Every structure is written in C-alpha cells, then in structure tokens.
C-alpha cells in the first residue's frame, strides 16, 4: 500500500471506531508492520496539530484513537449544548494517584496509604472508567487488584503510564503521600463528573 492509502485507511478506521483500536489490529487488516501504523499515525497527528485541525490522533499505550482537538473544547461543548463538568475532587485525585503510581493495588493498600476508608471513591472511579479490576491478589481472601485505564490516559493527556511525573524523594510517610498527590495534580485534567464522599476517619 502507498503511504497515502495507509493514512486514509487509518483515518477511516479510527473515525468509524470512535474508541481505541490497537495498532496490531490495524496492521493486520492493512497487511503492514505495526511500527509503520504507529509512525504513520504519529505523522498524521503532527500534521493535524500543525495545521490547527479540529481533530487529533492520540496514542494510548499500544492503541490509537481519534478525538477532538482540546483547544476547541469550549466551542464543541457549546455546539453540543453540554457544560463542562467540575474537575475531580481532591479525594478522588488521592485515590487515583495511589492506583496510578503503584498499580496494580488492592483497596486495602489504597486505604493504608491514605489512612481512611476509600471504598466509595474506588467505586466512583470505576464508574467513571478511570480505574478497573485487573485480577486478584494471591493471598487469603483474594482481594481485587486495580489499575488505571485508557480513559485515565486520555483524561490526563498522556500516552503511557511511563509519562507520569516522577515522584520526588520523600522525607516520611505523610510527606510521601503529599508528593504523590502533587505529582498527579501536575497532570492536565479535563472533564470529570462531580462527586462527594463521606469518609470514615
């Protein structure tokens, strides 16, 4: 296939899918190397950005997705008559930070780090699609393990967990918790639904 045909096919597949599609699947369909799919998508994405187009192609680990350009979010929101939801609460950011930096983790581990019951927030983040179960720990009781999702990557505008800001050295447990929260607050958050939480102390 010529490069222009590859570009057109990638655009068509991602537009029609409306959700992440693995580069491996696209490569298999087009009969080309996975690396060529990723490189072509990256070049397309750079072109969209340079030309200030209204769409973007983003990479989420080993998958690709077409989405609207973030700089036109306000216009898109107005056109679709939707309002911008509030950002995640501090409580949700704390739980999300623990999962993001130490995944896979159990709810008990999250609560150990935070020092408070986090069952409500874990469920809330699952409902938002930011975290998901990824197996069970091989200990008595078989507690569920959680990890972040592709939605988490999109929400924080990163392509991989490896792009999370590094955690600075901490001077103690409490300081360490604050460093985790500060690091994840440094990421660019976008639309998130409002929530409240009554936690046990």
What can you tell me about this protein's structure?
The chain is globular. By secondary structure, it is of the alpha+beta class. Helix 2 crosses helix 3. It is built from nine helices and six strands, in the order H-E-H-H-E-E-H-H-E-H-H-E-E-H-H.
Short description:
The protein has helices spanning 3-17, 23-30, 34-50, 73-79, 90-102, 107-114, 119-127, 150-155, 173-185, and strands at residues 21-22, 55-60, 63-68, 105-106, 131-136, 144-148. The protein is α+β, with helices and mostly antiparallel strands.
Largest sheet: 3 strands, antiparallel
Query: How helix-rich are the residues, as a percent range?
Result: 40-55%
Q: What shape does the CA trace take?
A: globular
Topology, number of strands: 6
- Percentage of residues in strands: 5-15%
Structural class: alpha+beta
Alpha-carbon distance between the two ends: 62 Å
Helical region count? Answer: 9
Low-confidence stretches: 188-201
Oligomer: single chain
Rg computed from alpha carbons, rounded to a whole number of angstroms: 19 Å
Series of secondary-structure elements, N-terminal to C-terminal: HEHHEEHHEHHEEHH
Mean of the pLDDT scores? 81
């Amino acid at each position: 296939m010529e490069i222009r045909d590859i570009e057109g096919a990638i655009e068509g597949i991602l537009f029609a899918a409306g959700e992440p599609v693995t580069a491996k699947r696209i490569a298999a369909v087009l009969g080309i190397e996975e690396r060529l799919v990723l490189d072509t998508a990256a070049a397309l994405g750079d072109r969209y950005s340079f030309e200030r187009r209204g769409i973007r192609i983003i990479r989420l680990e080993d998958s690709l997705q077409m989405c609207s350009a973030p700089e036109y979010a306000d216009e898109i929101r107005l056109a679709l008559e939707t309002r911008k939801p509030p950002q995640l609460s501090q409580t949700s950011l704390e739980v999300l930070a623990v999962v993001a930096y130490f995944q896979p983790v159990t709810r008990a581990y999250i609560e150990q780090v935070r020092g408070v019951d986090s069952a409500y927030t874990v469920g809330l983040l699952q409902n938002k699609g930011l975290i998901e179960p990824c197996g069970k720990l091989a200990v008595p009781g078989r507690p569920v393990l959680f990890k972040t999702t592709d939605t988490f990557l999109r929400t924080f505008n990163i392509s991989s967990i490896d792009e999370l800001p590094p955690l600075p050295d901490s001077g103690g447990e409490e300081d360490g918790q604050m460093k985790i929260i500060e690091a994840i607050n440094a990421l660019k958050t976008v639309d998130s639904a409002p929530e409240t939480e009554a936690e046990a102390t």
